[in-house]
Amino acid sequence: MDNFRDDPVMYRPMLYNWDDCNKKFATCRTPAKGKPIRSWCRLFKVGRVYELRYVYYNGTGDTIAEFHPDDSIVLPSDSLAWQRMHSSLAMALHNTIPIITERMGKGRYRIAHTGFLDNSLPEAKRGYHMQYRDWWNAFKTHGSEYFTGMTFDRNGMCVNKRYATSGEIDVEKRKVWLRMLKRFKRGLKARAKIGALQQHAKRIYEEHEELARKGQSRWQWQLPSFQSGRYYRMLKEALETNEFSPEFLDAFVRSATPNTYGNTIATDAHILQHVDTVMNELSYNLRKEYGVFISEPLNADGKVVER
Questions:
Q1: Which residues of the chain register pLDDT less than 50?
Q2: How many other C-beta atoms are found inside a 10 Å radius of the C-beta of residue 18?
Q3: Where along the chain do its domains lie?
Q4: CA angle 86, 92, 97 (to 5 degrees)
């Protein structure tokens, strides 16, 4: 398994090992600016180590991978930096270096060395008989979760695996939270049935019509955000007391009012659907405040996973 390049492979990346980087960098005109590899990455030399760096629109960048003289590959960025880069990495990294990446959840990524995956397949399924389905199943089986400092040896094996932790839930407090959430949704549905939500919706529609006549576009409407302190406190109060003040209902209906195609009256169905949108966004923070988590779930990089 020491030399993958002579074996049948699924992908043949541009930079496979330290020697490839050395040959490519020898043609670099301005070492300080790095050697362009793809439109989104450049190769730099730091001592005897080659660094492949992601290049953002403003010229800054995070290090994707380090190639060491012993042919080991290190992924030094943290999972937040990997998340920022991932839209490009998911599509093109495996054609650039022998690393493939896939999102497996919020802030969590499955990583594997493509050479190791090629050689993990049975002999009968290699070469011309290699099927993408079998190769991808091998990725699911042998891939490891991303973390800072993830290291692959010359054979493509991750030598320092780490694992995510699922955290621990306080069952009783979770039941309290679920009852509170169910009561909150039921309360809004009750107000929809008696027409309270539509009273706010029609008044907001008329306000927006007046703003439009004054030349203010829908992009200038001031819509409440329940991520902000004031409205977040109003939402918590409604959750805890099951009382819906006119101010809260106005803010909630206003935040649910569609503004994609001009001025539109928010229907009851749209407003009640918006309940799920808001609560999904705030669910983790609210559960944390109400003590649902004894210990929070962490990814392999040691960062909290909001789920």
A1: 1-5
A2: 20
A3: 18-152, 171-291
A4: 100
